[in-house]
Amino acid sequence: MPRFNDNDPSSRLSKSADAKKALLNRFKTATVNDGAADERRAARLAVSQERDKRTAARAEAAKLEKERQLAAQEAKRLEDERLALEKAEEDARLRRAEADAEVQRLADQKAARDARYAARKARR
Q1: Is 115 exposed, middle or buried (0-12, 13-18, 19+ CB in 10 A)?
Q2: Residue 6 pLDDT greater than 70, yes or no
Q3: What is the distance between the alpha carbons of residues 96 and 88, in angstroms, rounded to a whole number?
Q4: Alpha helix (H) ranges present in the chain?
Q5: pTM over 0.85
Q6: Which residues, 6 or more positions from 31, have their beta carbon under 8 angstroms from its beta carbon?
Q7: CB-neighbour burial class of residue 64 (10 A; exposed 0-12, middle 13-18, buried 19+)
């Protein structure tokens, strides 16, 4: 490894301070208001504003899509409820019809039994 001839700590400190000053001066001259910097700043601002507009538009579109999906889900839920209610009504109607048929069958059986009983009694 090569050795530097800067063995004196004060010279190293002064070189470090000079480097920091040079960096600071370079930064200060870069931030001076010149036309090119203003143009770059304006261009960055315009790009940033356009990006913000696109982001807001995407957020609005996402919000509208979510609302549309919620409305579709609600419509599907209502349709499912309506279909379930119609099915329940149809099932109840069928059960009533079956119960009425059973009552009629039992009434017919009773009438036939009563007729047989009456015929047997008439024969005696």
Answers
A1: exposed
A2: no
A3: 12
A4: 9-30, 35-123
A5: no
A6: 37
A7: exposed
In this predicted structure, the answer to whether residue 97 has a pLDDT above a threshold of 90 is yes
Chain-centroid distance, C-alpha 33? 47
- Residue 112 to residue 57: CA distance in whole angstroms: 81
Give the Cα separation of 14 and 77 in Å (integer): 79
d(CA 46, CA 40): 10
Report the greatest alpha carbon distance in the chain: 149
CA contacts within 13 A on the Cβ side of 2: 3
CA 44 to chain centroid: 33
Sequence-ordered list of residues with C-beta below 8 angstroms from that of 37, at least 6 positions apart, any chain:
30, 31
The Cα-based distances of 46 to 7, 42, 43, 52, 108 in angstroms read 53, 6, 5, 10, 92
